[in-house]
Amino acid sequence: MKLWYSYLKELKLSSKGFYFYIEILMTVIILFILLFAIPENFDSTEDEFIVLELPEPIYGKFMDNIMEGDLDGQAEEVEFEIDDQVIMADLYVSDEKKIYLFENPEDMIEATKKERPLIGATISWNTQENVLKYDYYIQGYESDRLKNLYSVLHVKDLETIIEDADQIEVRSLETGIEQLNSRQMALPSLITFNGSLMGLFIIAAYIFLDKQEGIITAYAVTASKVSTYLLSKALTLMTVTLVTSLAIVIPVMGSQVNYPMFILLLLTSGFFASTLGLFITSFFDNLTQAFGAIYTVMMVFMLPAIAYFIPSWNPLWIQMIPIYHLILGFKETIMVGGDMLYVLISSAGFFAGGIILFLLSNYRFKGNLSV
Question: 3-state SS string over 22-58?
Answer without folding.
Answer: HHHHHHHHHHHHHHHHCCCCCCCCEEEEEEEECCHHH
